[in-house]
Amino acid sequence: MSWNHVAWYTLARSVGHYGNGLLTRFPVTAIRRLDLSVPGREPRGALDVDLDMDGVALRVIVTHFGLRATERRAQVQGLLTILSKEPDRPVVVMGDFNEWSRKGPVVRMLDSALGASAAVPSFPSCWPVWSLDRIWVRPRRLVRSCRTHTSLASRLASDHLPVVVTIELGRC
Q: Which pLDDT band, with edges at 50, 70 and 90, does 86 fall under?
C-alpha cells in the first residue's frame, strides 16, 4: 500500500521546521494552506485537504492552535468562517487545540458547528488525562469509534498520544 503525505511548515528554525502534516492512504485531490496566525504570536496554520476515499470526497483539516486563550478564539473563528462556506460537506477537523477545559470556548464553538468531538485523553503521553488532541467529524453519525493509540513507540515519539477515529463514509 502506498501512502500520500501533505506537509506545510509555519515556522522555520535552525533545529527544524514546525507545522502541520497529514499522512493518508487515500488520493489527495486538493491542498489548501490556511493562515491562522495571530499578530505577535507564533505563526499557526492549518492544512485543508480534499481526499478521494473510494469515490467519496472528504475534506480533512489538520491544525495546531496556539497556547493563549485569546489566540485560540481568533483561530477557531477563522476556521469556522472557512467551514461555514460549505456547511453540508463531510469534513474531519483534527489537531492539537490546546484547550485544557473539556467545555472551553474552542470546544464549545466547534461542537456547536460540527457536532460533539471525538475526545479521548491524549496528553501527556506518559499518563494521559487531558483531551488536547481532538477530532470532529461532520456529520457526527459517520463516527464508529474513537481511541488513543498507546504503545511504547507512541509514548516515546511525542508528549501527545495519537488519536484514532474510525469513520464509515457509507453513511454520508
A: very high
